[in-house]
Fold:
Amino acid sequence: MKYHLKNAVLKCSLSAIFAAMSGSVAASGFALIEQSVSSMGNAYAGGSAIAEDATTVYFNPAGMSRLSGTQYAVSVQGIQPSTKFSDGGTTAAPFQSAGGNGGDAGGMTPVPNVSFVTEINKQIKFGLEINSPFGLQTNYDPNWIGRFQAIKSSLQTVNVNPAVSYQFNDSVSLGAGVSFQHITGELSSGVNYAAAIYGGALLQGATLQQAAAAGAAAAGQQGVSTVKGSSDSYGYNLGALFNFGTETRVGITYRSQVKQSLSGTVDFTNVPTALAASSKFANGNIKLDITLPDSFSTSVVHQVNPNYDVMADVTWTGWSAFQSLNVIRSDGSTLSSTTENWKDTWRVSVGSTCRYNENWTSRFGVAYDQSPVSDAYRTARIPDQDRTWLALGGQYKPTKSSSLDFGYAHLFVKNTSINNDQSASGAGTLVGTYASSIDIISLQYGQSF
Structure:
């Protein structure tokens, strides 16, 4: 009976994950730290050291040594970002109307995950986590003022992470896992055909006046280019857990880079007759390489008394691996190239947990999360900025073998300035500010056998 129940839960969770929409950014860059509701209430402070349920497979596989029997956890986190642009002197794309501010580029997205741990023997544990560690979605009104720079940007990952842990003694445990990761992406933007006709006239020897007349005659002609692709790759994660007496634990975790090479297609709409023969606007196959960053975390949890714990975490993420975004056609020519120049980041968090009785627990946490994006390289696709977390959560245990975790977090995002000059490509110069915030509501069910 238990075997059938566990399989049913895993199948339902898998279906939910693969049916989920593209993830919305909650951690900085396009990372998704939301892999555990029990840890979210602490703003993920102590994430590599808490190890109180099956979600430790992702945060620190060595933490499985603290679990006994068989456990699973199923959760869903609703991420609601708000991203609103205010114009501050944008130069519209040549030969095109300006357009509005784009509306709210954010939108509610469910991010589900499932974790499973079972005991091979007293020293060895096996675990499996299925989650989405990276995700992004910004979606502007199709006729907004920055449409020639970005309309929709979407990235989704599904990560399958089996892992093992080995407990050497009461003080030291080690863990390791492998991540099999599938990624899909979509990038769309407006295409300024009128500017292309103007540029084509110049290349054919027309005078500036003649070229300007050709562009003016084509004024308003535009379409949409959509790039879609997918890829599969793998990485690994390592962890260690150290017990200093019965009151203090320290966890360290490393997650490797995952190098993805997406293959897919580009599609152009409404190509005018004058440009129909141009290879620049031909539909076809493309490739896009992206390196998802590695990370290193150190966490500590200290039991002040039997009812009260405090915890902290410091995490480094190697976002400097993301230097450019290049879309390459199958013949080797460059369809588009965007300089990113991202930098490595730090995330720090502190939190506390209070156990009132055998049934009820409350959690609190705050965090500061650096953005990898500098002002000089900010784009409309990822208008990222530093953020501060304020998180609350709790747990109710209806029985000794089951638990219901819940949490809420509000992320205060600094106002973001942008001055992105793409006038040379006919996309205009986007100048203004972004007002952003993120709300997260989460729920998790856990069961042990």
About this structure: The longest strand covers residues 222-244.
